[in-house]
Amino acid sequence: MGDSDSREVRAPHAALLELAIVLPTLNERDNIAPLLERIEAALGPGGWEVLVVDDNSADGTAEEARRIARTDPRVRVLQRIGRRGLASAAIEGFCATAAPYVAVMDADHQHDPALLAPMLASVRAGEAQVAVASRFAAGASTADWNRPDREKLSSIANALAKRLTGVELTDPMSGYFLLPTATARQLVPNLSGIGFKILLDLLATASPPLTVKDFPMNFSARRSGESKLDRAIAFDFLAGLYDKSFGRIIPTRFALFGTVGVMGVVVHMAILYLCLLVFGSGFTGGQAAATFGAMSFNFWLNNWLTYRDKRLVKLGEVLRGWASFVAACLVGAFANVAVASALHGYGFHTLPAALVGIAIGSVWNYALSSRFVWGRF
Known about the structure:
This protein is an alpha/beta fold and 377 residues long. The chain has helices spanning 29-43, 61-69, 86-96, 116-124, 148-165, 181-187, 198-205, 233-246, 252-277, 283-306, 315-345, 350-372, and strands at residues 19-25, 48-54, 75-79, 101-104, 130-134, 177-180, 212-216. Helix 1 (29-43) crosses helix 2 and helix 9 (252-277) runs antiparallel to helix 10.
């Protein structure tokens, strides 16, 4: 072979790969092919690739992307099993491409691919380290979006995000941006990967702050399918802020789990007094009803919020998850009582003994639930 081992191998007549476009998808089957046509119209026939990072969509999005990839080598598919969330999907896309620049955009046609070329040119020329397609910059429009409720939520979130990141831009909550891949991968080890706002994570992690340039965007209506964002998006955003501020002290998911547990105590007491005062039941029966009611409430809220990236949806999974959660909580309750009783027996005051028992039970419940309720699916 001789010197040929060190030669650069290139496909004949192939344009050098310059840009990777990461498309986090969940039930976007009908949107993929039309979006690829729009990307090609914006960027030309070569020099780019699309990474479809699919969260095991029920509508066959990954299979549709594979069908296209069989005849179009510019398309690649990463199908994720047991992992969900736009932020973590974007991170996997950063690490899966050899392109020197990477963009993240939605697959639902709300983000205009025509902005990719000017965004790439700006970052390549060194005008900024991150190019952001903004819904709120001068010249942008959200008229086709027709979601005044979400526009108001975004404006409030933007104000909070600016305080956290120290970066002045009009739309830090944008899901459409472009930056050098090396910059993204350098930040990956310190990213939380929580929720949907990966740009906020990147900007809050970078030190010194990244320079940013806004590109006004005409934010369109979704072409097909349903939005990946639900009513928990505001909670998800706050979780992201918490993680970047305090996540190294108390893990974010544990903090959410504990918050749900506190709310469960309120539910428990409400059910107990309802049984005692309204239905006239005895204390034992009321306590049992309150315990299972609170457990069920905690399971539902944890499934909806704390573990929303691993949310159980199918009826069989939900029922098995609920049974596993109840079993985990019963073990935690036993640990709580055992530790608190032992400390009290050694002379600890009632209050600190009880609090230590509660803390032990909470950690135990969190560990068991994370592994055997949401971790197993």
